[in-house]
Specification:
single chain; mainly alpha; 7 helices; 0% strand; globular
């Protein structure tokens, strides 16, 4: 779920959560642990959802097609349908987003190997 929704469920203002996470990225020990736990929870949630899609792909060709489209859009998505990120989109990618993406790729690769 989006972080602002999680914050509201925890009865924390979203701006407060984002401030705490920024302090964690800056290395403040009390907030670094929060940042780490948030990232772990997000990675676990994403991994669980991807696992469900992988399982569904065994019975449902649309799930398999969706996975292929996401993993290899250069091969499986027609060029006319590809969305090319703007420079602003790429510049806005945070280290946190990259970390979550790497966790998901690792989870997918371990499922593939196992």
């Amino acid at each position: 779920m989006p972080r602002d929704t999680a914050a509201r469920l925890a009865r924390i203002a979203p701006a407060t959560l984002y401030d705490w996470l920024a302090k964690g990225r800056a290395g403040e020990p009390k907030f670094s642990e929060l940042l780490e736990r948030v990232q772990e929870a997000e990675a676990q949630s994403e991994s669980t959802l991807v696992g469900r899609i992988v399982e569904a792909s065994e019975r449902n060709w649309q799930a398999a097609a969706w996975l292929l489209n996401c993993r290899r859009p250069d091969v499986y998505v027609p060029a006319r349908e590809r969305i090319k990120p703007s420079e602003d989109d790429v510049a806005d990618t945070s280290a946190e987003d990259i970390s979550v993406a790497r966790s998901v790729v690792a989870a997918l690769e371990s499922r593939k190997a196992g």
